[in-house]
Amino acid sequence: MKCPFCGDQDSKVVDSRHSDDGLSIRRRRECMGCQRRFTTYEIVESLPIIVVKKNGSRQPFDRNKILNSMIRAFDKRKVNVADLDRITTEIEQSIQNSLEREISTDKIGEMILERLKPLDEVAYIRFASVYRRFQDVNSFVREISKLLEG
After folding, report:
1. Tell me: the pLDDT tens digits for 4-23?
2. Residues 61 and 97 in one domain
3. How far is the C-alpha of 128 from the C-alpha of 116, rounded, in Å?
4. Domain count across the chain
5. What are the C-alpha distances in Å from 139 to residues 128, 142, 143, 146?
6. How many angstroms separate the CA atoms of 52 and 60, rounded?
7. pTM above 0.70, yes or no
8. DSSP letters along 11-49, please?
9. What does the alpha-carbon distance between residue 61 and residue 54 come to, in Å, rounded to a whole number?
10. What is the CB neighbour count within 10 angstroms for residue 143?
11. What is the pLDDT of residues 103-130, one digit of tens each?
C-alpha cells in the first residue's frame, strides 16, 4: 500500500477492525519509510451482472427471480426452502466467479435444472416444461425418457 505522505510502497498493518455494518475492514497501517500512520478500508468488489433474455433485452441479475421460479416448480411438493436458497446462492456465486459480466437466461436455466434434478424429479420436469417451452405431450415424454435413462 502506497503511503499517502511519502509515497513509499512498504507498510505494515498495525490494527484491523470490521466496520459496524460488517461490509468492510478498517486497517491502520504504518509506513516503513516515514513511520507515519494512515487508514485504509478494504471492501468486497461486487460487479453488476447483466442477464440477457431470449428476446435480446438486458436487465440486472436478480437472485429472487431464480428462487421464485424454483418455488413455483415445487408448488404442492415438499421442499426445504433452505435447499432452494442454497441452490440460488450456488448459482449466484458461480456466475460471480465466472468473471463474465453478462449471462443468458439459457445458461441460468441450465444451472437450475442441473441442481433440481437430484433434488426432486417432479419439480425438475415442471421447471423444464416452462424453461424449455414444451409445446406438446411428446416434449414431456422425451424429457421424462431422458430423466429415466440418466
Report:
1. 999 999 999 999 998 776 77
2. yes
3. 10
4. 2
5. 10, 5, 6, 11
6. 9
7. no
8. EEEEEEEE-TTSSEEEEEEEETTT--EEEEEEE------
9. 14
10. 17
11. 999 999 999 999 999 999 899 888 988 8
